[in-house]
Amino acid sequence: MKKRLDHTESLSTLGQLAASIAHEIRNPMTSLKGFTQLLFTTANDEGKRYLSVINDEINRMEEILTEFLEVSKPTTHIFTKFEIKNLIQEVVNFMAPQALMQNINATINFEVDHTRKILGDRNLLKQVFINSIKNAIEAMSHGGNIYINISDMRDKPYVCISIEDQGYGIEEKVLERIFDPFFTTKAYGTGLGLSHINKVIGEHGGNIEVSSTVGKGTTFKFYLPLHNGNKPILTI
Ligand code: ADP
Ligand code: MG
């Protein structure tokens, strides 16, 4: 199954409002955390057990808020010209320890001229590929391979970065929602990774395709416009 995406603004005005609420919630949470820790020092064993559950839950709420604020904050894009190959290599090196711990091997295959450049915000795109590989790792609880392929599109000035995993795959009903903010199938997921990825790729004039087979694995293909010396950025 396959899904092609339009560029949609994943975080709307409502999202901005949610961001300011998230920000406001942070202060009372800090005070909750402080008092929980204070109570811990005087509580008996039973009380300590309950308080540590409260503490864990507060930490979890903080994590969600931090990730949400990270995604929704207005970012100034710093566009530079850079080689996509180096960026992907950096991401793979960065993720290697986490992958190794789960018996996962990530290999990169370059089908394109190594000096091919794109114009974009390097940090934002780096986050895109980190999040995508993180999702691949999280889908492969039994280990396996992640194949990353960088190729050209024959008829268009785009580079295609595909990330293929051997994870549990995505059911059709789930596939329709994976880019929605806060949609997650994971017990401890935030559901913000793919909505951010979609936003960033859209802002770069790119596109995403997903194909998946349940029980076999998933492939995300990211298409990004190649930089050509004259125009700053190519649009579809
Ligand atoms: P999170 O990882 O916090 O759940 P994401 O936005 O990154 O949020 O992903 C949303 C959902 O998309 C995941 O919960 C999962 O169901 C699905 N998903 C994303 N990537 C993969 C993948 N490589 N394999 C299987 N499912 C995936
Ligand atoms: Mg994720």
TrEMBL record:
- The chain's coiled-coil residues are none
Q: Which UniProt keywords apply?
A: ATP-binding, Kinase, Nucleotide-binding, Phosphoprotein, Transferase, Two-component regulatory system
All residue ranges annotated as the Histidine kinase domain in the record = 20-228
Q: Which reaction does it catalyse?
A: ATP + protein L-histidine = ADP + protein N-phospho-L-histidine
Enzyme Commission code: 2.7.13.3
GO molecular function, a single term: ATP binding
Q: What is this protein called?
A: histidine kinase
Species: Psychrobacillus mangrovi
